[in-house]
Amino acid sequence: MRFGFKPFFINAVFIVLFTGSTAVSSASFDYLYVEASEGNSSGGHSALQFGDEVYHYQHHDSGLIRLLRQDKQPFHFLYRFLQNRRIHLSHIEVSEETFNKLREHFKMQFLAQDQQFRQLNQIHRDRVLLHRLLQPDAHEALPDTDSSSVLRLNGAGLFYDEKQLEPPKKIVRKLNGAEARASQMVETLRELIAQTYGQDFLLYRREQIIHDIKIQTPVHWPVGQEILSKDNFPAAINSFADSVEDDWTALVAIKVLMEKQPLRPDAFFMTGFAVSQEERQILEKLRDQLVISTVKSVNSGRPDWGYAVLVNIARLLAVDFSIQLGQWVFIDDFAVDSEWVSADQFARYAEQMQTHINDALADLALARKTLLDNDGLTETGYSRLEMSANRYFELLKGRQHKAVRYRGESALPTRSIALPDWIAPELTQQQLKTALAELGAYENRLHDELKARYRYNLITRNCVTELFRMIDRAWLQQINVNVGQSKLAEQVTAESTKRLGGNISVTYNFIPFVSFQSVQEHYKVTGNAVLNSYRGQKLEELYARNNALMTAMRESNTLTSTLYTYNPNDAFFIFFTDDNLALRPLFGLFNTVAGMGQTAVGLFSWPFDSGKNLESGATGILMSLPELFFFNMRKGSYKYLSYHQFAQQEK
Asked: Could you read off the pLDDT of 599-628 as tens digits, one per residue?
């Protein structure tokens, strides 16, 4: 596939100019065409880059297409390294006013759509809660939906499990040394709260929260003529489920304080890394800050104050343990939906995993150095330190042949438990049924409006067409919209031509490759560059150091390649065809046969592997057939490359 570009190494200057500095791009933006590959956006992908922000559309599981915003480096890392796809970049010169207008327009539409999908999630959670209240004895609130997986109390799992959070009863607990110390710290908090707000404050606060839970009523979901406003923002609504969860989380926070509840043993970990004298002094200051912050938060008017109190107490105890033990102690901050790597996978990619361990250790060292350089910790600084420690010590477990959480560190600990049911809103059956009916009507209307705007279609509404539609919509404020459709289209074309050099019709530009050529023909393109894939970069390095013919032969296939280890997420193939146009049909024939072979094996292994071999073989055939006609799609992917190495390389 050729576009008349100069070789990659000649475009090095373009790469530095276009991706290395936002100052140079103050009156310009970039159009990105990502080459085809197996998996998401298999036919190619398109995006717009405004400085350090990239906007692009992706097909969502709901059947809708969503606008996404990513930082530049993570976007390039995902597509060029993990997915091993070249990116073709066109630099488009515009006025500063046009640049700002486009960037702001995409930003506002992203925020609007983000709120729309957040509201869909709120509706779903409200429906689950209403069904649970309507049928309290039912195991599931909705068919195929376990309410305990939807309705959760963030932070509560740091101190309790579901069995512990039962109706109040006398608890007799033997305290070990760590629990006794934790109990003393929480007792100190209680005394400060009593001094600040009165002796009976916690009791009063608890009764107030219980009362608030009981009188909670479902949100009124009004169905007007149009739910989405002119700028696509739905009305901001604090959902019923959110309100109940916030109140319950606050109740748990009060319970921790009143019962002097210690952290759960699996909610924190000891590192063995010694705390220096300088670090100790900073931690003592941080401990004092957390005490003050907790005392203030317990009387906050924020709806989520309970979660803030739980996180503060947990971190306070971890900081105090660090001081008392003389070694760093941290809260486990991995999310419940973290991505796991099995022990076998860890061993298979041992070299790459060791790189991640080294990167995590370097991050941790830098976070500790920053702590000393700043002579103290902000909340952001401590979160970074906590996340760095979590990642490093989690990855270390892989050396012991254990499964590890590969991604999922959170800026705030979120360990949760299911929403209890022994205190609940006191609603009649009729109130619940009415609320469900109203919510259903609102949800149907919202779905209809979202489908009218975002329903995905391979030809008429995809990742390419929506970019150009968004660009056209950005000009509507500049023109008279109270005209006929044909006249409006003429005005949009004229405005686009004045600002960008031309207008691109979505009707004929639904294919990423075609749209990229149209950008060259119609917009004010002042330069092009090819940003190489991971394998492409490594091949160039090998060619520079070794015999070109021997390198080409060895790296042409997955069996002898030193640059690629088979990734089970890829359909099985033998030959790489993205860098060998002349032999592509021949190599494609071998790949097709390999796909057929895996499909045949899959027919026999289907009862044992849930059809994985069969599906992979069919995908392999589908990806290989275009190679017979000189078109490459599959590149091979790299699941566990180091983001740090990519970031350093791109500087």
From this structure: 998 888 888 878 888 888 898 899 999 999
Domain boundary among 353, 388, 412: 412
- Identify whether residues 26 and 95 lie together within a single domain: yes
Closest CA to 45 of 18, 73, 75, 8: 75
Q: What is the 3-state secondary structure (H, E, C) of 575-592?
A: ECCCCCCCCHHHHHHHHH
Residues 185 and 104 in one domain: no
**Residue 438 structure tokens:** 């109203």
> Does one domain contain both 95 and 178?
no
Distances (CA, A) of 56 to 182, 386, 506, 515, 634: 48, 32, 15, 14, 21
The model's confidence at residue 14, banded by pLDDT at 50, 70 and 90, is very low
Return the structure tokens found at 148: 């305990």
CB 492 within 8 A of CB 479: yes
Could you give the C-alpha distances from 582 to 1, 85, 512, 577, 600, in angstroms and in order?
11, 20, 24, 9, 29
Dist CA 152 CA 109 (whole Å): 30
Residues 321 and 395 in one domain: no
65: left (phi over 0), alpha (psi -120 to 50) or beta: beta
| CA separation for the pair 273, 366 (Å, rounded) | 14
User: Which DSSP string corresponds to 9-47?
Assistant: GGGHHHHHHHHS-TTTTTTEEEEEEEPP-SSTTTT-EEE
Q: What are the φ and ψ backbone dihedral angles of 136, each rounded to 5 degrees?
A: -60, -25
Same domain, 340 and 311: no
Q: 383 and 311 in one domain?
A: no
Q: 392 φ, ψ to 5°? A: -65, -50
**Span 570-589, pLDDT tens digits:** 888 999 999 889 999 999 99
C-alpha–C-alpha distance, residues 226 and 286, integer Å: 50
Based on the fold, state whether residues 523 and 590 are members of the same structural domain.
Answer: no
- Asked whether residue 489 is assigned to any structural domain, the reply reads yes
Which helix (H) or strand (E) segment holds residue 87: the answer is: strand 87-93
For residues 567 and 622, the answer to whether their CB atoms sit within 8 Å is no
User: Does 137 fall in a domain?
Assistant: no
Residue appearing with tokens 């996404």: 68
* Domain match, 272 and 216 both: yes
Q: In total, how many domains does the chain have?
A: 4
User: How many alpha carbons lie under 13 Å from residue 10 in its C-beta half-sphere?
Assistant: 6
Q: Are 202 and 251 in contact (CB under 8 A)?
A: no
Per the CB < 8 A criterion, the answer to whether 340 and 640 are in contact is no
Look at residue 21 in the predicted model and tell me its pLDDT.
Answer: 43
Domain coverage including residue 468: 8-117+447-533
Q: What is the pLDDT of residues 430-451, one digit of tens each?
A: 999 999 999 999 999 889 989 9
3-state SS of 341-376? ECHHHHHHCHHHHHHHHHHHHHHHHHHHHHHHHCCC
- DSSP summary character for residue 529: E
Whether 431 is in a domain gets the answer no
- Each as own residue / partner, the long-range contacts of residues 51-55 (CB below 8 Å, 24 or more positions apart, any chain) are 51/22, 51/25, 51/26, 51/103, 52/22, 53/103, 53/107, 55/106, 55/110, 55/467
Instruction: Give 410's pLDDT tier (boundaries 50, 70, 90).
Output: very high
Residue 435 lies in a domain: no
- DSSP letters, 433-471, are HHHHHHHHHHHHHHHHHHHHHHB-BTTTBSTTHHHHHHH
Residue 437 tokens read as 């009916």
